[in-house]
Amino acid sequence: MREQFWGPLNTQPTRNSHAQVVDAIGADIIRGRHAQGTALPRDEEMASRFGVSRTVLREAIKTLTAKGLLVARSRVGTKVRPRDDWNMFDADVLRWHLEGGTERAFYADLSEMRLAIEPYAAGLAAERASGEAILAMRRTVERMISAPDRRSFAVADIELHRQITKASGNVFMHSVSALIEAALLSSFWISSPAESPIVQSEVAEDHGRIVGAIAARDVPGAEAAMRHVILVGRDRIFRAL
Q1: Which end of the chain is flanked by fewer CB atoms within 10 Å, N or C?
Q2: Domain with CATH 1.10.10.10 in the chain
Q3: Residue 42 burial by CB count (10 A; 0-12/13-18/19+): exposed, middle or buried?
Q4: Fold of the CATH domain 12-85
């Protein structure tokens, strides 16, 4: 089994019956136990399974509907919506993917989204980053170089990407990164090169090139360096999977 590290997702508050039902049905949908396009069992059966009232069950169905996983229709029942309709920015939907064991397609989609956003964010950072922000980035790269284990490397890795999107000065880019932070941390954890000092040094140097281009106000260089880091990381994830 692949080792996992979900960071902030490791700590879940005690959940009430509504949250427990939402969690169980949502996880079953993500794992394919309720296939896309199929109807859920009848309310009576579901309520009996979870030991809750039909009122609690219906509230859970409403919550999952809001997350894009279900649709309720009269005389048809409650059906699982196609995967394309799921809200992948929802924290629970992301968590269910990560906890259930993610496939290559999940990380391919994540990499493509990152390629659409992060290189441009790095270019903006090259135009807008303050000297203080650049100094903080350099310190984070040093943490990547000296990281003693996978956890330390992954945490420093995501911190650097967070610093870069923040330095872009674009609140939407920074917010998107925050929304998918759990998925990013998962991908950085899987692709972490910390077990190989040589590869760790190379990956840290690649990230250092992003910061160097930002410090030099080299917009094309920052974009290219970020694109390279994302593609190399994607390939390491595919090999790990």
Answers
A1: N
A2: 12-85
A3: exposed
A4: Arc Repressor Mutant, subunit A (1.10.10)
